[in-house]
Records
---
Amino acid sequence: MNKKFALAAIALALAGCSMAPTYQRPEAPVAAAWPDNVRLKLSGEMVRSDRWQDYFAEPRLQGLIAAALEHNRDLRIATARIAEARAQYGIVQADRLPNVNATAGRNASLTPAGASAFSPNAIHSQRYDVGLSLLSFELDFWGRVTSLNDAAKASYLATEEAQRAFRLSLIADVANAYLSLLELRERAELAVSTAKTRTEYRELTMRRREMGVSSDMDYLQAEGAYQAALAEQSNLERQQAAATNLLDLLVGHPVAQLKDLPSGRPLAGQDIGAVQLAELPAEALLRRPDVLAAELRLLAANANIGAARAAFLPRVTLTGSVGTASRTLNGLFDPGSGAWSFQPSLAMPLFDAGRNSSNLDVAEARKVIAVADYEKTIQQAFREVADLLNAREQLATQLAAQQANAAAQAQRLKLVEARYRVGIANHLELLDAQRESFAAQQGALQVRRLQLATATQLYKALARGTEDAPEERKP
């Protein structure tokens, strides 16, 4: 009895062994603080909410994002891959427990006369069996099955984080497509208004040429400006149609057919919240879904090393059955019909032509790749966030200057138009003022859209990809 308890204790102790290397998170290969051009502007700001509804406040944009989260096919694929990874993890996890099957069978045979060395007569035999069987259950002395289970679990969780990252990307892409569509619509409206104004001045120049006040050169300049406005209008309408098709693709449903979608606001009325950040890069970056997915892939690679190492050691498997057996069906459960079998086996690799060594080399190489991928992901995330933070500040300054320029050019155009109508300014001066004013207004719309797109990308770069507020989450 004491020997049995000792063997059981040894088996339990060995079952807790693991050949996997002790995991240590690699140090983040980035600076300990944000660059000076953005760090001082973030003092005291902390993360409050990841809810996209709080970040994108415009009702129409919220409706488009909600529709995309429901209908987008790529998101459905990413979600299905989570279910696939979860099922694969369940398959591997099942190997940690014995598989017991209920069995029932009949075995009958006939040996013809003269074919048996034991009897000259024909031999007829049959046997009925009912019981429970255990097939090839491995005692996980060296943690091989546990390591495989840990690797499958990490891969499943990495797939889940990858889906969160894609979800954030989809939200940002829908917002950017919507902003681009708004920009193109407003620029097209501006081009239509400009073409209409240039039509009036072309007709005015034609009349003045007929009266001998303007020259053929003035008329050709007016005609060229008018045709350029028409060309820009057609170009913007083409881009607007392409932007509409892109938005339909991202939403997964024609936007025009969405019911109860609120009317939208102009570009200047978009209220995309300012990102609130943690003070240190590690606190903001290490919780990103893509970084978490990269670390989980590293954990899976680390666990696979443990499984590859355990393959060098003996493997003990158990096979057995217990039940009843009888020559007749009605005697299966009679006293004395009990039957059992127990077949433990020990397999020790002696010669495998280097297979196990190669498998270990593959596992270790994949861990090196996973470490580099994790570090690269952090570096890319740091660069992305630093660029966006800097762009957010610079675009705010650029937009203010561009709007001031547009206002100044519009005022200049009014003065030149008044001077031209009374014959003080020439047509070349008017044409220059028109071009400068049109370009300034178009530039202001472009910069405003870039500023809003930067705020959208910051949400994608720093949100955790969950709908809970951070203070409600468990650490």
Note: The longest strand covers residues 123-139.
---
Amino acid sequence: MGFITTFLIILLVYYAIKILLKIFAPKILNYAGKKAEKHFREKFEGFNTQQQAKTTDEGDVIIKSNTSKNPKASKKVGEYIDFEEID
């Protein structure tokens, strides 16, 4: 008798969860979608205002030089090692 009641309880919980998900899943997904849209909209507006602030007037000349008083040494990454396959 204990096995049958346990089995019926498991079936009841399974179908209850299935019905509740059919009812509430669209609402939960809609809420999550709106939150994601709001988040991306805020990030994009911040990016857009940064781009507008960086714009310069037409005809302005900007010269950026990369010269420095202490030139850096050549960038050697490492020593090359030639490997040979051993049969």
Note: Residues 3 and 9 are 10 Å apart (CA to CA).
